[in-house]
Design brief:
This protein is α/β, with parallel strands linked by helices. 43% of the residues lie in helices and 18% in strands. Helix 4 runs parallel beside helix 5.
Length: 148
């Protein structure tokens, strides 16, 4: 059983009911996509601490499956470079086609010329470089604009 399969066993409906850590007010739902397990866990912790309900995926392909089964979500926070067919930018485009109000934030540890060219064609989509501080993540998610 791989990491993607293990993630599917989580009761997604329980994660979407608005419960957050420390009794904080629910601020929205986040589909968080990151293939590095440690970073995924840390970003999830930061977002839940701030009052967001978070569902995670370790690939773009799994993220789309989760979105179709349990969405929509208020936010997509996704690494640009992911295992599988769907990369962060193509995942975002497909999810926006399904739910145009989703707010998109990209994260990457590999900022390349291609990534910047792709990002320049997307208006108002924040790009965070790893490592990401809790403050930067929360500031960007609060200021996110719709992916267009």
């Amino acid at each position: 059983m791989g990491r993607d399969t293990a993630e599917r066993t989580h009761p997604l409906s329980e994660q979407r009911e608005g419960r957050t850590l420390a009794g904080r007010k629910h601020r929205g739902s986040v589909l968080l996509v990151e293939d590095c397990g440690e970073l995924l866990a840390l970003m999830r912790k930061h977002l839940e601490w701030a009052g967001y309900s978070v569902v995670t995926a370790t690939s773009g392909d799994l993220a789309k499956e989760i979105f179709v089964a349990t969405g929509p979500y208020d936010y997509l926070v996704s690494d640009i470079h992911l295992p599988g067919v769907l990369q962060g930018t193509s995942l975002a485009a497909q999810l926006v086609d399904l739910h145009s109000d989703i707010q998109v934030i990209f994260v990457t540890g590999h900022v390349t010329t291609d990534a910047f060219e792709t990002m320049s064609s997307l208006t108002d989509v924040p790009l965070l470089e790893k490592p990401i501080s809790r403050g930067d993540l929360l500031d960007v998610i609060e200021q996110a604009r719709p992916f267009t």
